[in-house]
Structure prediction request, 90 residues.
Amino acid sequence: MIDHVFVIGRSLMDRRLIKAARAALGWSQPDLAERAGVQRLVVARYEAGTQTPHPKTMVRLVEALRAGGVEEIVREDGAKGIVLTSNIGK
Prediction:
């Protein structure tokens, strides 16, 4: 039984969640970049915290991860994480 209430988040993932989601899917930075249609350097710089992508680029990164089978979760206390969804492999 789950003792926490989770709300599926629709906000953009921060850089730590992007990296965790990518790792959970077994994707490299070039894999994510290709699936999102962005340059690998954008992914690398964002994950390193040296650059914040344009909002449209962020949407593309998050949409690629969601299509791959990852969703952001937000607990009632504001803590965030990721969860693998049933869309994996589709």
